């Protein structure tokens, strides 16, 4: 099937990315962002089916020309975050991490504590020895759970006062994204992982519904909500799914092939190799369409596709996504990476299954 490339919806994808990044959604606290996705998709009419799974993820189904076999794509909308571990006697909070990041990467970050009664209380993540005018070890103090705390933006000096504002152990903590879209084409801020991919998939679904192009098979999209802790889309996979493609950020760093302008096709990560025939098919599609792509290996990385295979599903599994710099810290990607990923996925959903 020959699919005519339409102008990719750059502003829609990036505007959606900015919307998603600004909705707090640390793993386990994702209802608001799923509601946003549901509202956008429900407005598209009855040509798609929506269903939430018990973990809170959203399953979207597009009808194709054949019922089975089927394909599934996924992106996760949960992010790194924290939870209140301890209310300290000085009115500050100790936090526990949600997801895998270094303590250094959240030093000085503005954050929000989400209380059970719905209040949002602002604060800043700081080392306990921050002031260079007071502490000899301000620069050398180890950044760890014991030595990091949240300074709340309230006049509090004890635990009683903190609790009087409704804060309690187990309250979720989100990190302010500090997101910017720059004239150079870069988008920088927290949570490009994996809201860049989620924005691409959402706009791809909406564009597909608007155009009405036939696709060869029923195609599902899961917006998962527990990927950052290892089990986002490893369940609730519809019967009949043969191909499972995770859309998640490409990792950039020393020794890596990925950059901020490509769609990265992962051939192996910490879980092992991805399906050889599938990754070759994706590379062939990228080459045929003149897209800028890179093959790469991510040494400290696992995806929802590998989680699904590990859970026992018999799937052809793959992983692609836009290149993202400084992952799990102050991230950055480029419009080129978003476009190359969008176009690859557009052609993929119109291509025959393996």
UniProtKB/TrEMBL annotation:
Which positions in this protein are listed as binding Zn(2+) 2? 193, 228
| Single biological process term from Gene Ontology | proteolysis
Q: Does the keyword Protease apply?
A: yes
Q: What CDD domains does the entry give?
A: M42_glucanase_like (cd05657)
The cofactor note reads:
Binds 2 divalent metal cations per subunit.
Active site annotation, chain numbering: 227 (proton acceptor)
Provide the GO MF annotations for this entry: aminopeptidase activity; metal ion binding
Keywords of the record, alphabetical order, are: Aminopeptidase, Hydrolase, Metal-binding, Protease
The residues that hold Zn(2+) 1 are 76, 193, 248
Task: Tell me its cofactors.
Answer: a divalent metal cation
Residue spans crossing the bilayer? none
Q: Where on the tree of life does the source sit, at the highest rank? A: Bacteria
Q: Work out whether the entry's keyword set contains Hydrolase.
A: yes
| InterPro entries linked | Peptidase_M42, Peptidase_M42_aminopept, Peptidase_M42_dom2
Which family does the similarity line name? Belongs to the peptidase M42 family.
Write down what this protein is called: Putative aminopeptidase FrvX
Protein source organism = Desmospora activa DSM 45169
Organism lineage reads as:
Bacteria, Bacillati, Bacillota, Bacilli, Bacillales
